[in-house]
Write a structure and sequence with these properties.
Layout (H helix, E strand, L loop, with lengths): L30 E7 L4 E6 L14 E7 L4 H11 L3 H7 L7 E4 L4 E10 L6 E10 L3 E6 L7 H8 L4 H4 L2 H36 L3 H33 L10 H63 L15 H22 L4
Helix pairs in contact: 5-6, 5-7, 6-7, 7-8
């Protein structure tokens, strides 16, 4: 299955807003987890279903609902009715192949991005879609599988007097986006270490396996680049957004996030260029090795041309070749060949051909 283009066959002919899951099912059942908190109290509990969900409406109370597993269209429909979410929004949630983006609705802001995983077997990069819906006092996040990418946020929420507990859900959204960009940076750093290790090997030992490795990482960087560039645009739009859902105190953190997003994109672009340079250097190293081989063969063949000429003359089957009767002719011919070979080597050395 192509990683760079999404399949749309399952939705062909359906009207906009149709809830059809088009991705690869990661979990057997969706898992719901709701965290409600304010500066003093926090509750963290599993929720069996949307119909059992009770959203508190007290002033100053923030709600974070996380849903692992987005394949259940009935659950998405019930969720949309409970929170008044647009079917177009939920359609994107169930279509993991969507390009990362930000959509501003009348009463909420919707963001869909990617989180990266490295396959333990072959080292390829997998990308799952992560979505977030920011409302007046609630934040809903969607993940394709159960993971620990947001665990750092949960740990911060569990601490009494933590800054995140004293802020609203807009700051919580910032913290979650920060986790995603940290996920990008950690994986890019890991791949970058391998790319930098290849630089010395390209010069010292340009084997065919190294070319395969360069090609592999060019594909992986291109795959990551496809997601991190629009992610940077999302943060840029957040910083320019005029919405009552964001407090003025949150924008300095969003500006800091913009710096991190630029760092992520710059890192990807740098390693993309490095891989291109490594590919060119590999080809140059192979060409240099081939040239050295051809130089040796050319020198070897050139030295043997006059020697072969002499051997050819005295290998002819004529009866009257005066030197054939000379007692020391064989040794004289070998000496002449040796002198010619040495003279040619000295000449090549003076010309700096070898």
């Amino acid at each position: 299955m192509s990683r760079f283009l999404r399949k749309i066959d399952m939705k062909a002919g359906l009207p906009p807003g149709s809830l059809v899951f088009t991705g690869q099912r990661r979990l057997d059942n969706s898992v719901l987890r709701m965290v409600t908190y304010d500066a003093e109290v926090i509750t963290d509990e599993a929720v069996s279903g949307i119909r059992d969900l009770k959203v508190p409406v007290q002033d100053g109370t923030s709600v974070w609902l996380n849903i692992d597993g987005v394949h259940d269209s009935a659950l998405m429909h019930d969720l949309g009715e409970l929170f008044g979410l647009s079917p177009m929004l939920l359609e994107v949630v169930q279509d993991p192949g969507q390009r990362p983006g930000l959509t501003e609705y009348q009463d909420c802001v919707f963001i869909n991005m990617k989180v990266f995983y490295e396959d333990a077997e072959d080292g390829t990069i997998e990308a799952d879609q992560v979505c977030a819906v920011l409302g007046d006092n609630f934040l809903i996040t969607f993940q394709e599988r159960t993971g620990d990418v947001f665990e750092a946020v949960r740990v911060r929420l569990s601490r009494q007097n933590a800054k995140i507990r004293q802020k609203g859900v807009d700051y919580l959204l910032y913290a979650i986006l920060d986790c995603l960009f940290e996920n990008y940076l950690s994986l890019i750093e890991k791949i970058g270490d391998r790319i930098e290790d290849m630089e010395e090997d390209v010069i010292d030992n340009p084997e065919s396996e190294l070319l395969e490795e360069i090609h592999f990482y060019r594909q992986e960087i291109a795959y990551m680049r496809k997601s991190v560039r629009p992610a940077r645009d999302i943060v840029s739009r957040l910083n320019r957004m005029e919405s009552d859902l964001f407090a003025e105190s949150t924008f300095p953190y969003l500006k800091e996030l913009a710096v991190i997003s630029e760092q992520v994109v710059d890192s990807v672009e740098i390693y993309k260029e490095m891989l291109g340079d490594l590919y060119s250097t590999y080809n140059m190293a192979i060409s240099t090795r081939l040239n050295e081989t051809m130089k040796f063969l050319t020198v070897f063949a050139t030295i043997f041309i006059p020697l072969t000429f002499l051997a050819g003359i005295y290998g002819m089957n004529f009866d009257f070749i005066p030197e054939l009767r000379f007692r020391y002719g064989y040794f004289a011919l070998l000496g002449l060949m040796f002198v010619i070979a040495c003279a040619m080597l000295i000449y090549f050395k003076k010309k700096k051909w070898i």
